[in-house]
Amino acid sequence: MRGMWPDACNPVHGVNMSSGNGQPVIRRLSEQVVNRIAAGEVIERPAAALKELVENAIDSGARRIHIRLDRGGIDRIDVTDDGCGMSPEDLRLAVERHCTSKLRDETLVRISTLGFRGEALPSIGAAARLTVMSRLHDSDSAWSIRVEGGVVGDVEPCAGPPGTRVLVEDMFFATPARRKFLKSPRVESSHAENVVRRLALSVPHIAFRLEFDQRLILDLPAQDMAARVAAILESGHADGLLPVEGQRGDLKLSGFICAPSVHRATANGQMLLVNGRPVVDPVLRTAVRVAYRNVMEHGRHAVVALSLDIPPEQVDVNVHPAKTELRYADSAAVRALVIGSLGRALGTGAGVAGVRPDLLQSRGASSARIWYPPERSADAAGISTRLAAPSPASAPQGAALPPGFAESTLPLSALPAARKAVPDGPETVVADAAPAIDHPLGAAVAQVLGTYIVSQTADGALVLVDQHAAHERLTHEILREQYLGGEIRAQRLLLPEVVDLPARQVEVLLSFGPGLARLGIEIEPFGGTAVLVRTMPALLGKENPVGMLRDLAEELEADDLATPAQADALDARMDAIIARMACHGSVRAGRKLTHEEMNALLRDMERTPRSGTCSHGRPTWLKLEKADLERMFGRR
User: Fold this and answer.
1) Distances in Å between the alpha carbon of 372 and those of 15, 376, 588?
2) Could you say which of 161, 182, 216 is where a domain stops?
3) β-strand 304-309 against 270-274: which pairing, if any?
4) Same domain for 168 and 246?
5) 251-282 pLDDT, tens digit each
6) Do 209 and 251 have their domain in common?
7) 3-state secondary structure of 489
C-alpha cells in the first residue's frame, strides 16, 4: 500500500518528516522551492529558456531580435528586441508566476500569442541568474530587475534603448543536479540553433541575428516566406522548393517542401507550424512520412516547412508546459489534409522547377545499395519490354492509359532493328549530333556504361539519367493508376509457371490471392511448397514470374502489418508490391538504347508524376549546371 500514500507519508532517507509522536507532517514549500520544481518542467536545457525568451520578444511586436549565446547558453543567454517594452510595474509582475498580458479571458481557447502561461521568466529566474532591462518607446529611461535562484530584487533605473533585453547567466546554478545532465556546449548550441530557426520561420517579417561565442550563425533580414524558408532549410536554389497549398473544411495548409531527392538522416529538417506556433507534432510528422513513403528511400526523412491554420477551438495547445505538443479535435482530418496536399505537390514530372537534384550534393547522401536484375539474354533476342506506356496499337483493350502518360513511346521491341548501326563492344553510345532542345531534361547526347543517359539542356546544363531507375518509376505509376482504377489487364501465360517456395511463403502468397488478382497475378496452390502462376500483368510483357513471385513472397512474409483481413493494410502493401513488379518489368542496366529511345524516355519522365525518384526513393536524374562545371575546372 506504500504507493497509495500521500507524498508527505513517503519516507525519505535523511529527512525528518515526522512530529514528535511519529506522525508525518504536511508542510508548505517555500516559493523558491516551488519555482525550482516548476522550472524543471518548463526549462529543460538552455535551448528551452532561449525559446521562451524569443517567444516573448516576438509577442512584444519586435521587428528585430538579436541573440547571443556563450557555451551553448550554459554560461550566458542574451536576447535583445525592439518591441513595445515594459513599465516598472510590468517588470515586477513579469517575474511572478502566472502573470501574463497575453490572455484576454480565462477559457484558454482563443490563444493568439506564442506565450500565455506566465511561467517562463519566473522559472528561468529560479534556476539561473536573470536580469531583465526594458524601456517603453515613449519613456525617458529604462528599468531593470534581477532574479537569482528565485530571489527577486528591486526594480531600478538603468540605461537602455526602447525595447527589452533579457540576460540569463550561469544556467542551473541553483539546481546543480540539473546542470550535471547538460550536454557539451556544441550539443547545446545545436539545440539552440534549431529553436531559433523554427521561430524565425514562423515570423519572416522579423529580422534575426544569432551569434554563438561571438561567431555569426544566422543573419536574416525581414523577408517573404519563400525566401525565409529557403534560408532556414538552407536550400541552394529558390526553385528547389515545391509550394504546397491545401484546404479541407476550416483547415488550411501552406508552405514549401523539398523534392524527394533532398532528405536527411533525422527529422530536424521538418519545420512545422500550427497557427503560427512551432511544434514537434507526431500527427503532422506521421502524415509527412506517409506522403513521402513511396518516393523516398526507407529510413530517410523529408525536408519540409509547413504551416497549418486551424480554428482555435479545434486544437488544444495547453498540453505541455513547453507548448510544443498539441491535441486535435479531428486528427484524422489533419492527417488527410497533409497527405493529400503533399501528394499533389510531389506529383510533378522530372525536370520541372522544384525537382532539381544536384550532383554535387548527392555525393554525400548515404543510401543502401539496391540490386537491379541484369539484362536478360532473352531481351537481346527481341522480347518486348516497354520503355513506358504501351502504344495504342499494343495496349490491351479496356486498359486506358492514365492522364499525363505518352501514347507514342517507342517500344523496346523495336530495338533489334535499330541496333544494326550500334556496335556490340563499346561502353558508350553517342547519339547523332543535335542542338539542345528546349525541354527540362534536354536532348540525349550519349549513353555511357550501358546504364546512364547523358543529355544537354538549352541553358548548357548536363543531365544524367539512370535508365533503369527512371523506367521503373514510369512503370510503377502506370501500374498504380491502373490498379486504383481497377483497369490492370491480366495476360494468360501460354504455359503456367510453377514457382517453388518455402511452405510459409506459399501460405502467405495464397492468403493475398484476391489482392494479387487485382494486380493481374493469378496464382493457385500446386502442392505443399509451390504455387502455379496462370496470369501476369499485360504491361510487363513476358516478364519471368519466378523471380518476382519469390521477391513478393519474401516481402509479404517479412511485413507483420499487412494482413489480408485488413483492407487498408492490404492497399498500403499493394503499392510496395507494385514497386517490386515495376522493378522487374523495367529496362535493365546494361541495355543499349537508340537516340530515339533515349529521348522518348526523357519526355516520358517529364510528363510522369513523381518521376524524380524511382520506386525505392533513389534519384532518377542528376543535374550539373554550367556554373558547376566551370567551378570544377577552375573557370570561376
Assistant:
1) 69, 12, 7
2) 216
3) parallel
4) no
5) 999 999 988 878 888 888 899 999 988 988 88
6) no
7) coil
Which amino acid belongs to residue 317? Answer: V
Higher pLDDT, 325 or 228: 228
Query: In sequence order, which ranges of 160-223 are alpha helices (DSSP H)?
Result: 176-179, 185-202
Q: Which residue from 519, 522, 528, 514 is spatially nearest to 565, judged by alpha carbons?
A: 514
136 and 254 both lie in a single domain:
no
d(Cα 136, Cα 83) in Å, to the nearest integer?
A: 9
User: Residue 172 belongs to what domain range?
Assistant: 31-103+113-216
**For 548-569, what is the mean pLDDT?**
61
Q: Work out the pLDDT band at 421, boundaries 50, 70, 90.
A: very low
Last-in-domain residue among 189, 216, 243: 216
Q: How confident is the model at residue 509 (pLDDT cuts 50, 70, 90)?
A: confident
- CATH number for the domain including 318? 3.30.230.10
Mean pLDDT for the stretch of residues 171-184: 85
Q: Pairing between strand 207-212 and 64-70?
A: parallel
Structurally, how many domains does the chain consist of?
2
pLDDT in tens, 573-591: 566 667 767 776 665 556 7
Query: How many C-beta atoms lie closer than 10 Å to residue 319's C-beta?
Result: 12
CA–CA–CA angle 280, 283, 287 (5° rounding): 110
Supply the DSSP symbol for 429: E
Closest to 57 in 3D by CA, of 155, 195, 171: 195
Question: From CA 240, how far away is CA 328, in angstroms rounded?
Answer: 32
CA 134 – CA 153 distance, rounded (Å): 15
As beta bridge partners, residue 428 has 448
3-state secondary structure of 487: coil
Residue 538 has a CB neighbour count (10 Å cut-off) of 18
CB 457 within 8 A of CB 441: yes
Look at the block and give the residue holding cell 529527512.
Answer: 15
Closest by Cα among 39, 48, 131 to 91: 131
pLDDT tens per residue across span 129-169 = 999 999 999 999 999 999 998 889 999 999 999 999 999 99
| pTM, 2 dp | 0.65
Res. 390 pLDDT band, cuts 50 70 90: very low
Question: Please, what sign has the CA dihedral across residues 267, 268, 270, 274?
Answer: positive
Place of cell 558547376: 628
Residues 44 and 126 in one domain: yes
What pLDDT was estimated at residue 356?
Answer: 53
